[in-house]
Design goal:
Blueprint (H helix, E strand, L loop, with lengths): L2 H19 L8 H12 L7 H8 L7 H14 L1
Helix pairs in contact: 1-2, 2-3, 3-4
Length: 78
């Protein structure tokens, strides 16, 4: 992909998440929804919430330092 394609994909993703966000009812849920959707499309085998959160918003996870370090280490190895 080139930069133009990346920009188009980012715009489409933002529009998609915005559409989902419009039905959530609370603005404070938009960030976590965006992080969740981002986690779903990132590389990695585990798509459960905690590993995805460690990659997209490590400061907000329960085991943030440990989970983030494990995800980075796993990505370097595998």
């Amino acid at each position: 992909m080139n930069r133009k394609d990346d920009d188009k994909a980012a715009a489409r993703f933002a529009a998609y998440v915005q559409g989902l966000s419009s039905v959530l009812g609370h603005a404070d849920r938009n960030g976590p929804l965006r992080d969740y959707c981002t986690g779903l499309i990132l590389p990695g085998e585990r798509k459960s919430v905690e590993p995805m959160a460690a990659r997209t918003a490590p400061a907000r996870t329960a085991a943030a330092p440990v989970a983030a370090a494990l995800c980075r280490r796993r990505d370097m190895v595998g």
